[in-house]
Fold this sequence. Notes:
The complex is a heterodimer of chains A (about 100) and B (about 475).
Chain A: H1 23-32, H2 50-59, H3 62-82
Helix pairs in contact in A: 2-3
Chain B: E1 4-5, E2 17-20, E3 23-26, H1 30-41, H2 44-50, E4 57-61, E5 75-79, H3 93-112, E6 115-117, E7 125-128, E8 131-134, E9 140-142, H4 152-169, H5 174-179, H6 186-192, H7 195-198, H8 201-217, H9 225-230, H10 235-251, H11 264-267, H12 272-289, E10 293-297, H13 303-308, E11 314-319, H14 322-333, E12 340-344, H15 364-368, E13 372-375, H16 379-385, H17 390-400, E14 403-409, H18 414-420, H19 432-442, E15 443-451, E16 456-463
Parallel strand pairs in B: 10-11, 10-13, 11-12, 13-14
Antiparallel strand pairs in B: 1-2, 2-3, 3-5, 4-5, 6-9, 7-8, 14-16, 15-16
Bound molecules: S-adenosylmethionine.
S-adenosylmethionine binds next to β11 of chain B.
Amino acid sequence: xxxxxxxxxxxxxxxxxxxxxxxxxxxxxxxxxxxxxxxxxxxxxxxxxxxxxxxxxxxxxxxxxxxxxxxxxxxxxxxxxxxxxxxxxxxxxxxxxxxxxx
Amino acid sequence: xxxxxxxxxxxxxxxxxxxxxxxxxxxxxxxxxxxxxxxxxxxxxxxxxxxxxxxxxxxxxxxxxxxxxxxxxxxxxxxxxxxxxxxxxxxxxxxxxxxxxxxxxxxxxxxxxxxxxxxxxxxxxxxxxxxxxxxxxxxxxxxxxxxxxxxxxxxxxxxxxxxxxxxxxxxxxxxxxxxxxxxxxxxxxxxxxxxxxxxxxxxxxxxxxxxxxxxxxxxxxxxxxxxxxxxxxxxxxxxxxxxxxxxxxxxxxxxxxxxxxxxxxxxxxxxxxxxxxxxxxxxxxxxxxxxxxxxxxxxxxxxxxxxxxxxxxxxxxxxxxxxxxxxxxxxxxxxxxxxxxxxxxxxxxxxxxxxxxxxxxxxxxxxxxxxxxxxxxxxxxxxxxxxxxxxxxxxxxxxxxxxxxxxxxxxxxxxxxxxxxxxxxxxxxxxxxxxxxxxxxxxxxxxxxxxxxxxxxxxxxxxx
Lengths: 102, 464
Ligand SMILES: C[S@@+](CC[C@H](N)C(=O)[O-])C[C@H]1O[C@@H](n2cnc3c(N)ncnc32)[C@H](O)[C@@H]1O
């Protein structure tokens, strides 16, 4: 995974130029929302998959839904802020989930 | 000492499968030894094995098996041997569903005991002794308070989505699982469903929403795992998801839509007399050859496999038609003999070697080679249906087993005539004389019997 909270899925029409909010600010913003911690807790033997993890949060009830809400809110906010920042290329990538385990 | 490690067992750093003096063992990391000791001591393993969810697994000291100096530590795990391993792409609908239910059931019981499953791949399950059984004992891990179920997405890709594909869309999942060992990715699967299907409750949740969240956030660096702790994610939440999945799976229907051969056994063109002759011939052939293993090629719903099962160690029944193999699986599961192994397989395109280094999963022929074969009313499918010249058909039969029973179906036969009805007959060499000569090059023809007024011939073949 690459760090870039402002990445936007566009892309039927190829990549478009995007303005990027300074990275350290993005990070601290995320940290403020309780989304990023420096110490990763338990190890996972396989990649649990982004969608797979977030869906479980969502099914976990109100608190989980709140986290998802925050994630989307962050994104909207950055969308706004990006208008005043620098530029970057963004491009759709394939499915993140393709590991096996045994 | 050179240990015979299973080339498919390398992903879990906690232990690898190896074979030693005919038995199956698993190496154990120090952490795994402690964990497995605890599971054995508190009766967890015993309970799971008794319920027929988990394959027999126990701990044994390396000294006892002469491996004290092999650098494996003091303790390894011993497993029951699975003589022929089949893969999810070779299972029928009910086999994959039962494998999914076994996985969920096991996970639930693990949670009850403060344990977890590390992963949820379909390759952790095997058809063994007439039922689907979990055999990756080392997947049992300690439950960590506040952690999510890491195997959930994998469970969806390898079990739930393929089963939904077949149940909702009427598309058999086997080619998809053969093509991708890690199953059907969530975003791809979401694109396969119609709008109407997307509004079904379980689809909305496990497919549409999961795909949406994945699409939105897979490409970010945001660490999400800690959110589970912050929001006090708990065991009952996992259990709720597991129970819901289990209910969803049980409700999925299987209609063998495009099965060509599903009711072959009840609709074929045999007279009662011809059928009796065939059954007797096959039965006596097995007495004569007395093989310990048989592979029944194009075995349909397994009538002949079941007939001879009591006389041999095991019978593999291979058929291209998933619906037929599903029927056979149900016959076995619901009280049939445990030594018949149902396999969905296309002889014109058998499962190749797959995975890492092409050794992780073995090709079908390597696994089904037996002492004898049955090829009953099959050769015309390969020679005329698949345009394979007769010499090559015989060569391949011989490669699979050195003896067996073959049923020749003449061009005059109604079934062959039907296969030819819309195409040019380019099969000049499809004659009994050519076939017999080819057989004689590789086998001894011990006996032949004509049926169908001479349109079919049963042949008993000994090694040459
Ligand atoms: C005429 S039936 C014979 C069934 C059974 N052996 C018997 O004698 O009663 C032919 C069977 O071969 C299977 N079959 C056809 N082509 C096949 C292939 N390429 N690979 C595996 N099985 C095949 C069909 O699905 C069908 O069940």
